[in-house]
Amino acid sequence: MDKTELLYALVLLVGVFVSAVSQVMLKKAALRTYASPIKEYLNPLVITAYVLFVGTTFFSILAYKGIPLSLGPVLEATSYIYVTVFGVKIFGEKVGKKKLIALGLIIAGIVVYSMLG
Questions:
Q1: Given CB 3.0 to 4.6 Å as the disulfide criterion, which of 26, 55, 71, 113 pairs with 117?
Q2: What is the pLDDT of residues 73-117, one digit of tens each?
Q3: What is the pLDDT of residues 35-81, one digit of tens each?
Q4: Is residue 79 a contact partner of residue 38, using CB atoms and an 8 Å limit?
Q5: Using H for helix, E for strand and C for coil, what is the string for 11-60?
Q6: What is the dihedral of CA 47, 51, 56, 62, to 10 degrees?
Q7: Whole-number Å distance between alpha carbons of 113 and 33
Q8: Cβ-based neighbours of 86, under 8 Å, separated by 6 or more
Q9: Cβ atoms of residues 12 and 60 within 8 Å
Q10: Does position 1 have pLDDT exceeding 80, yes or no?
Q11: How many CA atoms lie within 13 A of 112 on its CB side?
Q12: pTM: predicted TM-score of the whole model, two decimal places
């Protein structure tokens, strides 16, 4: 992987991370109670999360200009790791045996692709 490809891969990884952050923001907003359905959707947390989602789309478009199409899904799989870590740290969720095995397989797939891909 040359420097340009690495830069584009980092752009995609940043986009995936920001997307995971926006998912956390939406979950935090969903856990609150609102006086009306309008306030549920038109509050700063939800609006910011959706703006971030739109921004990550642009990160993806930019990244795919410089990385192979086959690399994109591999890098996007890191979102499962981010979301799991956020779930444990922010929401106190438990990680069971099956989820640990699944995350291990995702990480193994990323490593295998990185070394052989």
A1: 113
A2: 999 999 999 999 999 999 999 999 999 999 999 999 988 988 886
A3: 999 999 899 999 999 999 999 999 999 999 999 998 999 999 999 99
A4: no
A5: HHHHHHHHHHHHHHHHHHHHCCCCCCHHHHHCCHHHHHHHHHHHHHHHHH
A6: 170
A7: 44
A8: 20, 21, 23, 24
A9: yes
A10: no
A11: 6
A12: 0.88
3-state class (DSSP) for residue 10: helix
Unique residue bearing structure tokens 């996007």: 76
Reported as a single tens digit per residue, the pLDDT across 5-43 is 999 999 999 999 999 999 999 999 999 999 999 999 899
Q: What sign results for the dihedral spanned by CA atoms 90, 91, 96, 100?
A: negative
Residue with tokens 């995936």: 16
What is the C-alpha separation between 7 and 69, in angstroms, rounded?
A: 15
Place of tokens 């891969």: 9
As separate numbers, helices (DSSP H) first and strands (DSSP E) second, the chain gives: 6, 0
Please report how many Cα atoms fall inside a 13 Å half-sphere around the Cα of residue 1, on the Cβ side.
16
